């Protein structure tokens, strides 16, 4: 008998919906306060997740959800990078 593996779920900072970790993009704040997109999902630091949709990223930008989660100002470049990562993945 094979045991079912538990799929790790994460909550989207923008929508509040729960999704499997693989369907999310992680944003990390390091101890130094640097914020970046973590495509590996394994970088150390305080992390938050956004679902891999352009709508979720734009919603997060509008309501400052990532800033609230990480407690620091998030530059527009981070949102642009999120959109780039999502668009690139959707092409595959």
From TrEMBL:
Q: Which domain of life is it from?
A: Bacteria
YlxR domain location is 10-82
CDD domains named in the record: YlxR (cd00279)
Q: Which Gene3D superfamilies match?
A: YlxR-like
Family annotation (InterPro entries): YlxR, YlxR-like_sf, YlxR_dom
Full protein name: RNase P modulator RnpM
**Where does this protein come from, organism-wise?**
Savagea faecisuis
